[in-house]
């Protein structure tokens, strides 16, 4: 047992939109692979069953790729789950899975590879198509804004979002406004923001949400976890959010009886824009009273101002 614990290991938090199709091996861990940064890897789940996953190396690092989505799906891995990978030699890893309660995910011991029911012939037919599809998606893991230093109010910013992996044009008026260029964000930065948020402690009930484009860029409709909605009245009402300066923000809580869950709608846009929330930022919501919530923001990019520049009167 002591010998097993001495084997090199690393952990990763599962983040939707980041780890859905691939999972990055930490740079510091690559030395334990002794130059084997690509090839067929084996993941041994808590059940003892084996999942075969391709380890692929590119200019951004080494990633568990083809086969990884199946492993995550077969174990019902969700946002915030912690996975511990223990190296067992060559490209073989045993994996432990902890849910958001910080306890071992007990039902993972019953997981079986879903591709067991698929013939090898079918796998061969689809593998090339799926690999190409994944590669197209993974080429744009980056949040950036490409803009000219001579940008005026008639020119456009081109923005790439990691959730959609497509380029979109957004007209930007520069009058009375300041444009902030978005640089690429790394998986390490995303994971650090999440880890910092996870380290937050309070005697009050809390829940955590990773910002998605639909929450802070378009739509501004933020779905809330059931763990929060279950403690709320089965009806829509107003909730007061307090930022870290103590300023109150009124937000509409929408309850959906069909799904037995809720979301923030009216007023949430003002809060998100007012606090310059970006995709992958992490918000910890601390319930401090009846319909009163304090919000703690953990940013994926350091140096982003709390509030965007105000328009001149």
From TrEMBL:
Q: Kindly state which keywords UniProt assigns to this record, in alphabetical order.
A: DNA-binding, Nucleus, Transcription, Transcription regulation
Entry's Gene3D superfamilies? DNA-binding pseudobarrel domain
In terms of SUPFAM superfamilies, this protein maps to: DNA-binding pseudobarrel domain (SSF101936)
Q: Which residues cross the membrane?
A: none
What is its subcellular localisation? Nucleus
Coiled coil ranges: none
Q: Known InterPro entries for this protein? A: B3_DNA-bd (IPR003340), DNA-bd_pseudobarrel_sf (IPR015300), REM16-like (IPR044837)
What SMART domains has UniProt attached to this entry? B3
Which GO molecular function annotation, any one, does this entry have?
Answer: DNA binding
Query: What sequence ranges are listed for the domain TF-B3?
Result: 8-101, 207-301
User: One GO CC annotation, please?
Assistant: nucleus
Quote the protein name from its UniProt record: TF-B3 domain-containing protein
């Amino acid at each position: 047992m002591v010998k097993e614990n001495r084997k090199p290991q690393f952990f990763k938090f599962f983040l939707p939109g980041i780890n859905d199709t691939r999972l990055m091996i930490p740079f510091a861990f690559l030395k334990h692979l002794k130059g084997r940064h690509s090839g067929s890897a084996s993941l041994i789940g808590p059940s003892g069953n084996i999942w075969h996953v391709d380890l692929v190396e590119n200019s951004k690092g080494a990633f568990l790729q083809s086969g990884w989505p199946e492993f995550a799906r077969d174990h019902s891995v969700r946002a915030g789950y912690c996975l511990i990978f223990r190296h067992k030699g060559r490209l073989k890893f045993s994996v432990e899975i902890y849910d958001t309660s910080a306890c071992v995910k007990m039902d993972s011991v019953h997981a079986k590879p879903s591709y067991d029911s698929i013939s090898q012939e079918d796998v061969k037919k689809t593998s090339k198509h799926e690999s190409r599809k994944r590669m197209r998606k993974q080429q744009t893991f980056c949040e950036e804004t490409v803009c000219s230093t001579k940008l005026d109010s008639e020119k456009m910013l081109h923005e790439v979002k990691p959730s959609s992996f497509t380029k979109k044009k957004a007209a930007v008026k520069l009058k009375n406004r300041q444009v902030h260029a978005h640089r690429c964000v790394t998986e390490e930065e995303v994971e650090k923001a999440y880890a910092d948020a996870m380290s937050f402690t309070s005697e009050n009930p809390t829940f955590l949400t990773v910002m998605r484009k639909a929450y802070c860029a378009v739509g501004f409709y933020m779905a809330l976890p059931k763990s929060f909605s279950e403690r709320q009245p089965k009806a829509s009402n107003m909730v007061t959010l307090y930022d870290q300066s103590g300023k109150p923000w009124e937000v509409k809580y929408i309850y959906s009886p069909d799904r037995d869950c809720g979301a923030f709608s009216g007023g949430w846009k003002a809060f998100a824009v007012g606090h310059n929330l970006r995709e992958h930022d992490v918000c910890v919501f601390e319930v401090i009273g009846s319909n009163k919530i304090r919000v703690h923001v953990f940013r994926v990019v350091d140096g982003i101002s709390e509030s965007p520049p105000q328009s001149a009167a």
